[in-house]
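note to self — DONT lose this again. spent like an hour looking for the file last time. sequence + predicted structure for the chain T wanted, 85 res
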Amino acid sequence: MSEKKTTKRQTLSGTVIKKSGDKTVSVVISRVVVHPLYGKRRTVTKKYLAHDEKNEVEVGSTVTIAATRPRSARKRWEVVTGEEK
């Protein structure tokens, strides 16, 4: 009866814009939102701080981040995969 329950974590894909300290990267996520009444499209961008355990991603690379436990006051995401530029 010692089965582990695995939960599917929320994932996002974005671009690394800054290496902000040891094992921390800043990732920007852009998405297009359509206004419900007027139909105008606009780009919404949001920045997330993500934990990079191995310090392997570089600025400009595309990464996938997943939700995790709070690592610091603003860091609640971790880098899952890092693709090249």
